[in-house]
Design brief:
The chain has 201 residues and is mainly alpha-helical. It has a single domain, classed as Tetracycline Repressor, domain 2 (Orthogonal Bundle), CATH 1.10.357. It has eleven helices and no strands. The relative contact order is 0.11.
Length: 201
């Protein structure tokens, strides 16, 4: 049965959505095309009608994952417009987010993998990271004497590193302490944190 253009495009979007989750779970090299396509309910043969290569899919799936993650940041911020940074910190540096291997932050899940990929995947990550930094810069302002986005870069590095370390250990108490220490550090850098020291639970 011939697939319509609309169905083909819907199938393509499904593959991108599924790949964005499965790559976060398994890594770019930890899952093959057959399993990726099976996860989308399609055969491997359909892949080459929709994508130029696995690298092409990896770049598009990375973009989709970062867009999804950014949406979660925005939603958290909008839930607390008076203090958006604290709301994002509460969500991002939580044990719940730490446990989300397939839907969590792609920079944590795939950052080291992305460093070994080609320019298309890195371009997707760079775009998403710049979006993170733009949001952070808007919430915290630029510290006097900092390079452009320097404070935002330090905060993002702290947040990403904390979730990565929290996921890397078996000791649940140590994992939780990584998240709490990072949250405290980030909020101390923010205007709200300076005004309300020790506000983090």
């Amino acid at each position: 049965m011939r697939v319509t253009r609309q169905q083909a495009e819907e199938n393509r979007q499904t593959v991108i959505d599924v790949a964005s989750r499965l790559f976060r779970q398994h890594g770019f090299d930890g899952i093959g095309l057959k399993d990726l396509m099976a996860g989308a309910g399609l055969t491997q043969g359909a892949f080459y009608k929709q994508f130029d290569s696995k690298d092409d899919l990896a770049a598009q799936a990375s973009r989709r994952a970062l867009e999804s993650a950014l949406g979660r940041w925005v939603a958290a911020a909008e839930s607390s417009p008076e203090d958006p940074l604290s709301a994002v910190v509460d969500f991002y540096l939580s044990t719940g987010h730490c446990a989300e291997k397939t839907d969590g932050c792609p920079v944590v899940a795939l950052g080291s993998d992305a460093a070994r990929q080609g320019p298309e995947v890195k371009t997707s990550f760079e775009g998403g990271i710049r979006e993170y930094l733009d949001l952070l810069s808007g919430w915290i302002g630029k510290a006097e004497g900092d390079a452009p986005d320097g404070k935002a870069m330090a905060i993002l590095s702290t947040m990403v590193g904390a979730v990565l370390l929290a996921r890397a250990v078996n000791d649940q108490e140590m994992s939780k302490r990584f998240l709490e220490a990072a949250a405290e550090s980030v909020l101390q850098r923010s205007p709200a944190g300076e005004a309300h020291p020790g506000r983090r639970q």
